[in-house]
Amino acid sequence: MRLCYPSPPRCGRLVRPRPPSLPMKHTISLTLTLALLWWVLSGYPQPLLLAFGAASVAFTVWLARRMDLVDHESHPLHWSWRLPHFWARLLREIAISNLHVLAAILSPRRDAIAPHFVRTRTRQTSALGKTTLANAITLTPGTVTVDLCDDELLVHALTLASAQGVVEGQLDALVPTDVEEPAR
After folding, report:
1. Staple partner for 112: which of 92, 104, 105, 161, CB 3.0–4.6 Å?
2. Does position 41 have pLDDT exceeding 70, yes or no?
């Protein structure tokens, strides 16, 4: 996408270029998400506080649009219906990894903890998918994504079992491959 800048005006004033038009569905979705989150977290249904909440949501959305932050990557509306399923499976993997790390720590065997690095390829093709996978690996106890270069991940694993899970692509299978919004 190329921005066209207008020629400078003759009177010496600077003219700001208009940002490319944004799809309103992202702005509306962001507004509704922020409003729902504010209302759930505040817990106070008094009119004055609801008005303050509406004002803060309106200001936040206005600021996000002014900074040109509302797009398909910052607010992936197309991926929203898959997120609860992804989060549930990720939380399950985090709980299982917690138990594996706890068992390795409490194990009397000296070889239970074997820290090492593993290189693996990802099936993710988009930047959002790769970033989501790298963050999911880092959230899982016993593994940390150190580097992401093209389609290769460098992961530090605390145990052999966690390294094997990364190489087998257990978390890679959780992240949908089509997380980018279709081109128009």
Report:
1. 104
2. yes
